[in-house]
Design goal:
The protein is an all-alpha fold. The protein has a single domain, classed as Up-down Bundle (Growth Hormone, Chain: A), CATH 1.20.1250. The protein has 14 helices and no strands. The longest helix is centred in the middle third of the chain and has 30 residues.
């Protein structure tokens, strides 16, 4: 039951956060935002995850995650309330900052809880199930956001996202006591650099960052491309959902792929497939073609985070899994904070094709990195 409860909370909290980010981007486009504005908006989502993730991970190791996740849900709800009352582009940035606080509490801590609730022999399966749930949220959230805007209006749609975040917070408040608590014995004076000394961690952190940054750039600038070629918000949502559907499908067979190719081998092919789809994407404007390319991109990206998550948890020191995920999120969000601004400037100055090309080059670099490091597989079981 605790695991099922955790998956329900993940669906409500992270699902509302995903829908909120897409909704704010589409809302900003309706208000006349330029690609550079969308880049700044994307960066606003990751200011607080960059600043807070490691610190929050240490707190969760010592005191547990229940109350931190509850306050995160409350911040997410407040973030969607701001653009409902203040219907200007600056309100999108305020909402993005609040959603960022929520994301900082949800992402690493909920992954840590799944690992803590899992026996070593169950860990890969449970993380795989969590990744399937993430794919389901990625499928539902874009269509939910696009459909809500087209049929209700952007401002009222914010209230629906807010209600889902509140529902997640209420569940955590009422039943979050089933989660493991923290441990006062966990060393609180550890340094950020100590996590990087653990075997295999740096390489997987690089892979994780590439996957996350390229995925986020796709989710933020695919709507811009769709808007420029005249697609409606609903159609853009369907195109993004094709990406999520591919993630879901590939994760259904992920364990077979790992057994055949190894973790590193799967990542080599995943990065290469994603790179090829990104190069072609800005050349097409028909929704069927864009949906097909988004699907191919999802086949690559769907493999990345589950493999990285299992390997990081398995290699984390006993009692410091929250901190390890905090380091991962800090590095990821540092890149997610800086690259959208840079890419937004590139898109405003030169158009979207160079942006997609740069994204593809990062994926190609990731494929080359994983190909060089093939042969060493992370242990399947973490410390008892």
């Amino acid at each position: 039951m605790p695991m099922i409860f955790t998956f329900v909370v993940i669906f409500l909290c992270l699902g509302s956060n995903m829908a909120g980010r897409i909704l704010l981007s589409l809302y900003a486009l309706e208000l006349g935002a330029k690609p550079a504005d969308i880049g700044l908006l994307a960066a606003s989502f990751y200011v607080f995850p960059f600043v807070l993730s490691w610190w929050l991970g240490k707190l969760s190791d010592r005191y547990g995650s229940r109350w931190l996740i509850f306050w995160g849900a409350l911040c997410g709800a407040l973030g969607m309330l701001a653009p409902y009352f203040w219907r200007e582009i600056p309100a999108m940035y305020l909402g993005g900052l609040m959603l960022g606080i929520a994301f900082a509490t949800f992402n690493g801590m909920l992954q840590t809880i799944v690992g803590q609730l899992s026996k070593p022999e169950q860990r890969t399966r449970n993380f795989s199930n969590m990744s399937l749930l993430g794919s389901t949220m990625n499928f539902v959230a874009p269509m939910w956001a696009g459909f809500s805007i087209d049929h209700l209006g952007a401002a009222p749609a914010c209230l629906y996202v807010m209600a889902v975040s509140i529902a997640g917070g209420v569940l955590v408040l009422g039943w979050g006591g089933c989660w493991p608590g923290g441990s006062e014995r966990v060393e609180s004076a550890g340094r950020f650099a100590d996590i990087l000394k653990q075997p295999g961690v740096v390489r997987m952190l690089v892979a994780s960052t590439l996957v996350q940054v390229c995925q986020d750039l796709f989710l933020f600038y695919m709507p811009v491309h769709g808007h420029q070629v005249g697609l409606s918000a609903t159609v853009i949502g369907v195109v993004l959902s094709a990406y999520a559907a591919a993630c879901w499908l590939v994760r259904m067979v992920l364990m077979r792929l790992v057994a055949r190719l190894g973790e590193g081998g799967v990542l080599v092919y995943a990065f290469a497939i994603a790179a090829m789809s990104l190069v072609a994407m800005p050349l097409f404007g028909h929704p069927v073609a864009l949906g097909a390319l988004a699907f191919v991109f999802g086949l690559g990206m769907g493999c990345g985070q589950p493999i990285v998550t299992v390997m990081l948890f398995s290699n984390s020191a006993e009692g410091r899994s929250g901190e390890t995920f905090g380091v991962r999120l800090t590095i990821n969000n540092m890149m997610r904070f800086t690259t959208p601004v840079l890419f937004g400037v590139v898109a405003s100055a030169f158009g979207l094709f160079p942006l997609f090309l740069l994204n593809a080059l990062m994926m190609a670099a990731g494929s080359a990195l994983m190909a060089r490091g093939r042969g060493g597989r992370a242990p399947r079981q973490g410390p008892e």
